[in-house]
Amino acid sequence: MPPAPQVPVDLRHEPFRGSVVVQRGLLTADQLRARVWRRLFPDVYVYAAVPVTHQLRCRAAAGVLLPGAVVTGRSAAVLWGIDPVNDADDVELTVRPGSHPVRVPGLRVRRAAVDAREVCRRRGVRVTTPEATAVALARALPLEDAVIAIDQLTSSGLASLQRVQALAGAASGAGCRRAREACALADGLAESPQETRVRLVLGRSGLPAPVAQLPVHHDGRFVARVDFGWPEQRVALEYDGLWHAEPGQFARDRERLNRLQAAGWRVVFVTAGDLRRPDLVIARIADALAR
Fold first, then answer.
1. What is the pTM of this model?
2. In sequence order, what are the beta bridge partners of 239?
3. 3-state secondary structure 5-30
4. N or C: more exposed end of the chain, with fewer CB within 10 A?
5. Are 198 and 210 a contacting pair, CB within 8 Å?
6. In what order do the strands lie in the sheet with 44-47?
């Protein structure tokens, strides 16, 4: 059993190349084999107390194992704050054409040219810009998941929906049509994945299109901002998620509902369970609009 090493301050948080720290004298080869270190990739380690997330594995792969590689696709999305993958899924990287093939368990590496205008740095590694990441996801993900991802990147302010749509319009090759369709369906306003799902259900329903994130006013005073609204009929649609169960939220929701009703608005609530029966959701909204 190799002796348990002291943990150098420089190695407590970020992945490192084992051969380099041995050469620098921070650890011996025997100490590196101790359980206090976790091997992520060949010759790439991290302090065992550090949680191994997909983001950490991206930094290890593109910052240590293959410096200069670009984090792309689903892995790039993780670096931008959305999570279309699990922590243990392969890290997606792109390296320059002509580079030696890389076959490492846990990595998915392709050789292709990446437009330098669509690359920036985040979390210490090179990654595709939010707009380029959105288009890549739109090519690869099922349609609904792609629209959700685009909405997340654009509603957060990270990406410009206009720029995303322009990139998708100029795209060619596999998945370009799907990318354009997904980008056309995104609106960059949804504040949660479920709101995007509700909007897509409404778009397929044949009902009049609502206004997303509609501010409601009455007698010249602001009442509330609703997820979706039909102002002429004074009907609002609200997604009722788990966050509504937070302490104090129930009372705030009731107060807000009372204000909307006092202003003459009818409110339809939709939950995650309701989305499993979209026909019933549409019938409920149609009934409210007819009244």
1. 0.85
2. 270
3. CCCCHHHCCCCEEHHHHHHHCCCCHH
4. N
5. no
6. 16-17, 44-47, 37-41
